Write the structure tokens for this entry.
Amino acid sequence: MNAAVATSVFGVFMVATVALGLLALRGRGKGGGLSEWSVGGRSLGPVFIWVLMAGEGYTSFSYLGAAGWGYNYGAPVLYVVAYMSCGYAIGYVVGPMLWSYARRHGLVGITDMVAHRFGRPWLGAVVAVLATVFLLPYIQLQITGMGVVLSVISYGAVSLNWAYFVAFAVTTGFVVVSGLRGSAWVSVLKDVLVIATLGFLALYVPLHYFDGYGPFLDRLVTEKSDWLTFPGHGGSGFGEVWFISTTFLNSLTVVIFPTTVAGYLGARNADALRRNAMYLPAYNVLLFVPMLLGLAALFVVPGLAGAESNLALFKLVVDALPAWAVGVIGVAAALSSIVPMAVFMLVIGTMWGRSVLSLLPRLAHADRQKSAAQVVVVVAGSLALLLTYTAPNTLVRLSLISYEGMAQLLPMVLLALVWRRLTFRGAFSGLIVGVAVVCVLVFSGNDPVWGVNAGLVALAVNLAVALAVTFAGGRDVDPRPDAEVLADDRDEYAADPV
């Protein structure tokens, strides 16, 4: 009976999610071209941009991973709040700059920007392939997260294998049809549910299990003090230096993450992004709730080991709440998978449609790029689903280097736009060396290195190589005939007036 109630609630909300995505397309004809599908026609206002970017940052990790990290380690999980808040501050400057550059030249992603900046279309294709490698694990992890949620809230009635397929099918169908605008609309529903459910749990769990916050915090300080200091419980290695270096690296990386840039480029104007950057940190307050609930689970469901610790929050929920409430909380967690997974898939499709498949003569026409991008979405989602079934540890391992690998694009994407002297040879050499260094360090088990995030070490090497090659090799010659020197335009990166 409990399984039927919870899964019925879940099913109703999933149907409503797809319907909301379709409703977002009203008055848009047949959905427009690639620009309308991938960046919402650059017409989303402050509210939609806020919920979209909050939705991208608040994933199933927030329900599963944050609680699991809190359960396993404690204090080190606070890096998530730290880097996202710092990233929003950096985005106040970077977001309008990227928006202005892309709008001026009709670009829809970082691969377009790189290709345009250096005048080499094939370079955009290289960046698209590289970014896909670092984004694909996120799709797999969201499929896994939503699948786990569905299986748990169904009280085991829905197997993990079927739950994974449902996660893939709902999200893929949704993003192919509705694009970025649909994701923004669904983000509104997600945010309402996330705020309501986490607000409720923040009050309910301490009262239900500990008779209030006072007794709960007393027990935490007395019995679990290791979880409240660095490096956390169990000698994790995530100490103060790791925390600072990871916060610094991730706060820089998040502003050029392809999914973040998709949110930037969907804005109606640059001021919407500035207001958005001021308001978004308030959303991070919610992240403390699953972290706190993970610590509460130490007393309620002790002994969770390995990946099972990621279920700490839902163990509390299933044991204490009626089935309908379990279903609603499961929907909030599922939408926290669907929205970011939709944006990840959308960005991969756009990158390939614009930068890889467009190199083929038959697909170079603008009218065919949207269709090509939609096909890539299905292929990317199918690949992530297949690997979820056959080799889950492969992508989980790759996820370790996702942020650290994406950070190696910083000089090519960001530095190149603000420093006109950076050459193609310098940026490309630095990228190759940086990716190689981060892969060697991570896969050899040397992350962190002397307590420092391996991605930051690799980025330092990347930057040193880029600068050395730039200063040693002279200025670039733009390969495009009669091309303007884009980086020499001093007004290139100023935001357009509202």
Notes: Residues 113 and 288 are 36 Å apart (CA to CA). DSSP finds 22 helices and no strands in the chain. The mean pLDDT is 81.
